[in-house]
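Marked as duplicate of an earlier ticket. Keeping the data here for the record.
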Amino acid sequence: MNLAVIPARGGSKRIPRKNIQQFAGKPMIAWSIDAAIGSGCFDRLVVSTDDQEIAEIARQSGADVPFLRPAELSDDYATTGDVIRHAIRWLAENGAMPERVCCIYATAPFLRAGDIARGLGLLEERGADFVFSATSYAFPVQRAIRLTPEGRVEMLMPQQFSTRSQDLDEVYHDAGQFYWGRSEAWLLGKPVFSSIATALILPRYRVQDIDTPDDWLRAELMFKALHESDVTSPQA
């Protein structure tokens, strides 16, 4: 059994009600639900929420909401791993222990069904415990700088000052879209970002965190541009 779990609590502070605000014509969470359904990978798609309104919108969008998340898993200190473990245990207690579980974030409108399917393929092909989406940094992080308390500049890696950019290793960061994992790995609390995991690399233009109003505006502009490109593409 393959299970998708979309965590979606109601207490978002930086962008209130972020999970169900309208984004490009539909509630934000609906984009993640559509991608999960479109992937054809899941026997069950569950939204884990503490909020009745989110639950209703999730059901209208095609997801299952068989429980409301307990309060202790709905504050600022509950982790994604806590939420996924709760969902796995709830389903196991109700007769449906999943073998593979994919955590999909509710605010991932750039997620594509094909990426979810490719992630599942990598999980099996590479024998990994986890597979997640990632993308490369736009600028070499080895050249990063920071400001001191006095307002001066210092390099994080001064030893790389004279190294040519093309000679620096390319590095990546979590794309914040999906995380495939084996149920055992989730339940044991194994670290996702470790040697037991592998990454599906996405192009940077399909990755955008949405944590602030500025992020939201940028994401909508990117989404519109991508949609128009898909529509006008000869391959569309």
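See parent ticket for discussion. The CA atoms of residues 1 and 98 lie 5 Å apart.
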